[in-house]
Each structure stands twice: as structure tokens, then as C-alpha cells.
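Incident review: delayed structure delivery

Summary: a single-chain prediction request sat in the queue longer than the usual turnaround. Root cause was a stuck worker, restarted by the on-call engineer. No data loss occurred. The affected request and its eventual output are reproduced below so the record is complete for anyone auditing the incident later.

Affected input:
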Amino acid sequence: MLSWAAFLFAGAGPVADAAPPEPLVSVVLPIPESQTASYWQMVIEQQLIIRVPARRSSLNNFVATPRAPTRPREQPIVWKEKKAPKCVSMRNILGMQATQRDSIDLITRQDQRLRARLNRGCRALDFYAGFYMEGNKDGKLCEGRDQIHARTGAKCEVDKFRLLVPVPLEED
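Output delivered after worker restart:
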């Protein structure tokens, strides 16, 4: 490799004796007749898109045969809905799972689940591959204000957030 580089530079001659290269193309810019505008306007737009991946659920698992669970659960878990905040920090959302027809469950960094009820006409099945959120100034996803975007092209507004609390199912 070193001998190839030496071969390339051997025929080039000394650099100190070389004349400056001549321009390949000369460009003449026209001078405006009247210089009435004393300022220029520049618009810079910035857009932040956050992708939230989906986890498999019974609603969006398209595998031909049902798989055996990787680890058996000791007791089935039932989720109870409770009051939740109106906004969720976008940085805290790690994933989502489509579990009902009209809502998706958001999984947060604090290992909490928040059920996001979608507005009328939106199906959770459209979000089988996850969703995108457009970042905003406060960095929060709020109910009644922000939209989530599915990869299929669907756009849905979140109507309501509900906090999901696990309640072990008691067997009789």
C-alpha cells in the first residue's frame, strides 16, 4: 500500500515549484440595479419525530401458530384503570402495546402502564408496528391536544389517559 502511494506522488513533482491552479469556471454575478432591501430573511425549521416501538399482544400477534410462553406466569394479572395525569413526558415512553380496539397501552421508564384512549374512528390495530410522535416545546404528549401517527398513515388524537394498576386475579 505504501509503495502504491509513493508511485502516485513520484510523478507529481515538487509541490513548492507548482504554480497555483487556474480556475476551471469563472462566474460573474449580476449586481442588482437598486439596493432597496437592506436585510435578508432566513427561515430555519426544525422537526423532531420520536418513534415508539410496539410489543406483541393478542391483538397484533400475526404468527400462524400460537407460541408457548417463554416463562409461565404464576398468577394472571388483571389491570385496573385509575386516574392519570393529562400529559405524559415523551422521554418517559419506552414502548406501546395494542390491547383493546380503541386504545393502546403506553409503557413508561418507571414500569408503569398508561392506557391512551384514542378518539372516535381510530383503531388500535392501526398502531400494530408502533407510532410516531411529533416533538413540541414542552416535550409532553397531552390528551386532547397532541396526535400520534401510525406507520400506516393514520393520525389519532389521544382522548384520555388512564393509569393501569396490576391486580392479581384471585382463584377460588
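Verification: The CA atoms of residues 61 and 128 lie 9 Å apart.
Action items: add queue-age alerting; document worker restart procedure.
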